[in-house]
Amino acid sequence: MTDAPDVRPGRLAPGAYDQAFADLHDPFDGHEARVAAERCLFCHDAPCVTACPTSIDIPLFIRQIATGNPLGSARTILDSNIVGGMSARVCPTETLCEEACVRMHEGKPVEIGRLQRYATDALMASGRQPYRAGAPTGKRVAVVGAGPAGLSCAHKLATLGHAVTLFDAKDKGGGLNEYGIAAYKTVDGFAQAEVDFILGVGNIALKTGVRLGRDVTLAALRADFDAVFLGLGLDATNALGVDGEAVSGVEDAVGFIARLRQAADLSSLPVGRRVVVIGGGMTAVDAAVQAKRLGAEEVTICYRRGAEQMGASLYERELAQTSGVLIRHRVRPHRLIVEGGAVRAVELMRTADAGGKLVDTGETVVVPCDQLFKAIGQVFVPTDLDGAGGLLELSGGRIAVDEDRKTSLPDVWAGGDCAAGGRDLTVVAVEDGKRAAVAIDRALRPAVAAAAE
């Protein structure tokens, strides 16, 4: 909040912002990529493929790089994961494919993520569009949500010949890839470039600024289209659970990251001198590191459990610590200390594990802060799901789906973070969208065949 004491813009020198928010990883050049690719053993029964939620043929795409065919490599990647460029930047490869790499016994896996970026960047730079819309089927599908799940679903449906209308509540497509990822992970407008590439297949109409329940209803979509896919994401943040959190200086980390991602001038973004982030996942790390890079003097992540239970990977935690962020474990918010309507400190209760249950120890510690970000998880708000003929069933607070991502309504599918059983990862959302598209196509094909007779 800009009216909180000590929360102000311009903490860095004018030229320092570009350096602070430069690309986190320098991309490979051609020689570096060939050298990195040659470390791959091209395993026949590759554990890295099993670990990849989208089942990319990793040995094949790396072999293609090693033999000087990056464009063919990119096609191998994108056939399985059309959001492969962003996935290469944001996917926690250190806990998925790279952790499974047989080279881990040497202490250093093949750099699969950077190799994937090299290949997909080469294709994007070439200006080529290897995909085209399939022969028209005459069927129309509505996809709600232009995040990874929705984009994946829409692209696959278009290649199968169905006309897709893609709706999104925000002004731009991309979902969390556009609004929720640390700026230093995806520079130079790559998220929008990838959206444009995906839409370039044809037969997809993107309509932004359209919110389900406000501008269009599920019932209307079911009446107007042959099938509907919901990739709604998560649209609310958990509360701290303490009194008086609606004060100046306390805000959602997701909103902070979104504002930073959309800012034309980073020096205009206000940041506190002493910042506290509550949470232990990727969003907490992204918020904390970016606050530090905006010029905050002290940034502290506070997590209620131990380091081994944090949602952020070891790599992300080390990134935070090497950026100057302090991580406190086994503390939870107990009370906000407020002066003049603004947060001035947070009193934390120390916690302990008692038979697997988190308990308070009774000991507290006070951490001064003038800005506090909530990064304790997002939740799905199950509104506007009346499909005129039944309300979508929920499971665990999210939309219940089967293995094909089909919901309780006969012509509605769902995937990504809004669907039950998801893992809140870009690559999982992409796989959901792709799987749903195949199921939608299978459901529509009998009617297409009948119309052709």
Give an overview in words.
The protein is an alpha/beta fold and about 450 residues long. The protein has 16 helices and 19 strands. β17 and β18 form a beta hairpin. α2 packs across α8, α4 runs antiparallel to α5 and α5 crosses α8. The model has no long low-confidence stretch (mean pLDDT about 95).
Helix-strand blueprint:
Layout: E1 7-8, H1 16-20, H2 30-37, H3 47-51, H4 58-66, H5 70-80, H6 84-90, H7 97-100, H8 112-126, E2 140-144, H9 148-159, E3 163-168, H10 176-179, H11 190-199, E4 204-208, H12 218-224, E5 227-230, E6 236-237, E7 250-252, H13 253-262, E8 271-272, E9 274-278, H14 282-293, E10 298-303, H15 314-322, E11 325-329, E12 331-339, E13 342-354, E14 357-368, E15 371-374, E16 378-379, E17 394-395, E18 398-399, E19 412-414, H16 426-452
Parallel strand pairs: 2-3, 2-5, 3-4, 5-19, 7-15, 9-10, 9-15, 10-11
Antiparallel strand pairs: 1-8, 6-16, 12-13, 13-14, 17-18
Helix pairs in contact: 2-4, 2-8, 4-5, 4-8, 5-8, 6-8, 9-16, 13-14, 14-15
Q: What is the tally of beta strands?
A: 19
Low-confidence stretches: none
Percentage of residues in DSSP E strands: 15-25%
Query: What's the structural domain tally?
Result: 3
The neighbouring-strand order within the major sheet is 4-3-2-5-19
| Most strands sheet | 5 strands, parallel
CATH architecture of the largest domain: 3-Layer(bba) Sandwich
Distance between the ends = 63 Å
CATH class of the largest domain: Alpha Beta
Would you identify the CATH H-level superfamily of the largest domain? FAD/NAD(P)-binding domain
Based on CA atoms alone, the radius of gyration comes out at 23 Å
